[in-house]
Amino acid sequence: MSVRAVRGAIQVERDERQAILDGASELVQAVMARNSIEPDQLISILFTATPDLQAEFPAYAARQLGLTDVPLMCASEMAVPGALPRTLRLLAHFDTDLGRGDIRHVYLGGAAALRTDLPR
Fold first, then answer.
1. Cα dist. 14→21, 67, 86 in Å?
2. CA-CA distance, 8 to 46, in Å (whole number)?
């Protein structure tokens, strides 16, 4: 097995607790499903949020999904002028037999505009 990393992002509708939790939950579940990741394969997940999202920690959504023994961390994205607003991102490390080229990064909703080079 190798350690691999997968990226993902989702744009949420508003800076409200439930919108952040729903978006982060959808993102985590999509990343895990598209890469056939089981919870015990996860090493860690780093979440970031654009500075306009402050109502909740996205990592709390992962805890609600049962990822209670996975190290999680949240950080704020850089405030780059013109950047996509209300965006949650994640970087997850996991054990897998997948090759680097087989990893499926996940960009949902408005965040799909960030990686138009990836297949849907």
1. 11, 25, 7
2. 11
Q: Which residues are catalytic?
A: 7, 63, 74, 77, 89, 107, 115
Give the separation between CA 42 and CA 44, rounded to whole angstroms. 6
Q: Tell me how many helices (H) and strands (E) the chain has.
A: 2, 5
Structure tokens at 115: 């990686």
Residues 27-49: tens digit of each pLDDT:
999 999 999 999 999 999 999 99
Nearest CA-CA partner of 15 in 59, 66, 49? 49
- Read off the pTM: 0.95
Quote the tokens at residue 32. 């895990």
Contacts of 79 (CB under 8 A, 6+ apart): 50, 51
